[in-house]
Amino acid sequence: MASAMARAGRVDTVTLVAVTKNHPVEDMIEAASCGVTDVGENRVKEGTDKQKAFPDNKLKWHLIGHLQTNKVKQAVAHFDLIHSVDSQHLLAAIDKEAEKIGKVQDILLQVNVAREESKTGAAVEEFPKLCCLAKEAQHVRVCGFMCMAPNFENVEETRPVFRIAKALYDDMKGKFPDGQVRYLSMGMTHDFEIAIEEGANIVRVGTAIFGPRNY
């Protein structure tokens, strides 16, 4: 991460979200003891189960996987930042559940920049409307933008995807109060260095930290 930032001439901060999907809670405990402060989970139940091992709750919990509306109640109750808000319907459900518990839920809007059929995320054309609706929601705070690049064999091919994401993120800043939009979440184990070079300030890394997953 430091090398990628140096290559890009960056002197700001990039947050490492350690993704523990399908890894045991013991691995998370070890990572936290080594200084990890942000943890990412793809599934609501797996994340909430693992949170029980951290009763002092000093970690910041990120939900990075696709969120179904029937899991919104639990997600809002247990996660600090939801990365994968990709539709008007999901946005409304989060706003409703957050209101019930008196919370303003931090979220990122997810866009399927590469237009992959296998991946979730709003279409680029739907993004302006989603931004407008999110700005009007009373119990949701839009903190930024999330995208996933295709798993290209040549990692350099991810660069144009990340550049489009950065442009959308920069445009998004002007639609919300100053300082509210501050997170650009993109980059995983195979492409996080390119993502950092292209402007990401949150990267979601699992395999490079914990090894291959046991499915």
From TrEMBL:
Natural source organism: Megasphaera micronuciformis F0359
Alphabetized Pfam families for the sequence: Ala_racemase_N (PF01168)
One example GO MF annotation: pyridoxal phosphate binding
Modification N6-(pyridoxal phosphate)lysine, positions: 21
Domain called Alanine racemase N-terminal: residue spans: 13-212
Full protein name: Pyridoxal phosphate homeostasis protein
Protein family (similarity comment): Belongs to the pyridoxal phosphate-binding protein YggS/PROSC family.
Record keywords, A-Z: Pyridoxal phosphate
InterPro entries the record matches: Ala_racemase_N, PLP-binding_barrel, PyrdxlP_homeostasis
Function noted in UniProt: Pyridoxal 5'-phosphate (PLP)-binding protein, which is involved in PLP homeostasis.
Record flagged with keyword Transcription regulation: no
Listed HAMAP family: PLP_homeostasis (MF_02087)
Cofactor(s) needed by this chain: pyridoxal 5'-phosphate
Superkingdom classification of source: Bacteria
